[in-house]
Amino acid sequence: MFTGLIEGVGRLAAREPRGGDARMTIDVGSLPFADVQLGESIAVNGCCLTVVEFDAASFAIDASNETLALTTLGQMTIGTPVNLERAMRPTDRLGGHLVSGHVDGLATAVQCWDDARAVRWRFALARPLLRYIAHKGSVCVDGVSLTVNVVDDTGFDVALIPHTVAHTAFHALQVGTQVNIEVDLLARYVERLNATKDWT
């Protein structure tokens, strides 16, 4: 589990085909990394991935075809900045919201504008996922826990304060770029419970 509070920004350093899928190497950049362990989970742009190799400045993950097809990792080019977060500990403060690292789908950044000192972003999202997005609810965009400011039948808006822009890969995001979306866990479970309420 993660919180959606980014701990560092790294970059994609290498991609190597491996038996039909890929091994990817991530430079850790500003991520605190001194006590990394083999097999631990790190969220890369919101995707929960397993560390299979590491050194002092990077780690490698194996990306399955499912991950490559359903997240932005499949289209990412070498040098692309990525948001990084290590898995939360039970004693951590939950400053964002509960994030599983299981990406639900992709949204497209369609508009960006200044709003006083904040930056507002508009994302287009397909309706099957948009139904889980609620006004003033939480959404995870490329691993970042954000509050939904506006939602309608084509997409949603979020506002990023200067600290968020400066300390995440949002500083490099461009209009037209796709991003990973994870909807709120509670919304998925409420839907499932409602769908099975007649089960005995």
UniProtKB/TrEMBL annotation:
Domain of life, per UniProt, equals Bacteria
Q: In which pathway does it act?
A: Cofactor biosynthesis; riboflavin biosynthesis; riboflavin from 2-hydroxy-3-oxobutyl phosphate and 5-amino-6-(D-ribitylamino)uracil: step 2/2
Q: What is its EC number?
A: 2.5.1.9
* SUPFAM superfamilies linked to this entry: Riboflavin synthase domain-like (SSF63380)
Q: Which PROSITE patterns match?
A: LUMAZINE_BIND
Give the EC class as a word.
transferase
UniProtKB keywords: Repeat, Riboflavin biosynthesis, Transferase
As its record notes, the protein acts as a catalyst of: 2 6,7-dimethyl-8-(1-D-ribityl)lumazine + H(+) = 5-amino-6-(D-ribitylamino)uracil + riboflavin
Select a single GO molecular function from the record's annotations and give it: riboflavin synthase activity
Repeat recorded as keyword: yes
Q: Which residues form the Lumazine-binding domain?
A: 1-97, 98-194
The UniProt entry annotates Lumazine-binding repeats at 1-97, 98-194
PANTHER family under this entry? Answer: RIBOFLAVIN SYNTHASE, RIBOFLAVIN SYNTHASE ALPHA CHAIN
Tell me the function of this protein: Catalyzes the dismutation of two molecules of 6,7-dimethyl-8-ribityllumazine, resulting in the formation of riboflavin and 5-amino-6-(D-ribitylamino)uracil.
The name under which this protein is listed is Riboflavin synthase
Q: Which organism is it from?
A: Thermomonas beijingensis
